[in-house]
Write a structure and sequence with these properties.
By secondary structure, this protein is mainly alpha-helical. It is built from ten helices and no strands.
Length: 188
């Protein structure tokens, strides 16, 4: 009965629901918008949340309403509000993600040796398995097959199977004499 009384008169929401958190944003909306223009997507969302908090500074705004206005998950909004209240805007402007790629398995010296070997027309390497054996013996480097394949494809444009026009150890003089003698034997 007591519960029905509060529901009928709309008093239940006042007693059960918490009030929105009132946060005073020190920066002006102009400053926040300028920062937002120069920021990336992730930082831009954080600044958008701060702008909405600044707009509703006097009345306060709930995390659910902020979520609806900005399209950001309410849990992220809670985290960002806590960070702002504890440390200000500076930590919000850095996302803390470590950028960059993995360090290359192949050093620059090894890269140059690979390049020299692959660009030499008389190298005699017929496939990636032979190249992997060469790397193990000459460079004394243990490397996975797929790592070598992807590295050579990315840096040197190699392909799995490439037909050679002629044998690697072919004698040029023998070819010239063959061409001279074959011209005489060809029927015209």
């Amino acid at each position: 009965m007591y519960f029905d009384f509060f529901c009928i008169f709309g008093l239940l929401n006042k007693y059960i629901m918490s009030l929105p958190l009132k946060i005073t944003v020190k920066e002006s909306i102009k400053e926040l918008r300028a920062l937002q223009r120069n920021a990336g997507e992730l930082i831009g969302k954080r600044l958008r949340v701060l702008i909405e908090i600044k707009k509703h500074e006097s009345t306060g705004i709930s995390k659910r309403d902020l979520s609806d206005l900005t399209g950001v998950n309410h849990n992220s909004i809670t985290t960002w509000r806590k960070i702002y209240l504890a440390n200000g805007i500076t930590p919000l402007l850095s996302h803390g993600r470590v950028g960059g790629f993995k360090k290359s398995v192949v050093t620059t010296e090894e890269h140059q040796q690979l390049e020299k070997k692959l660009n030499d027309p008389k190298n005699g390497i017929r496939g990636y398995v032979e190249l992997l054996e060469w790397v193990k013996s000459e460079l004394t480097k243990d490397m996975k097959y797929i790592t070598l394949v992807k590295y050579t494809q990315r840096h040197f444009g190699t392909k799995i199977k490439v037909a050679r026009k002629s044998h690697v150890k072919k004698d040029k003089e023998a070819v010239d004499t063959f061409k001279k003698t074959s011209d005489k034997n060809v029927k015209k």
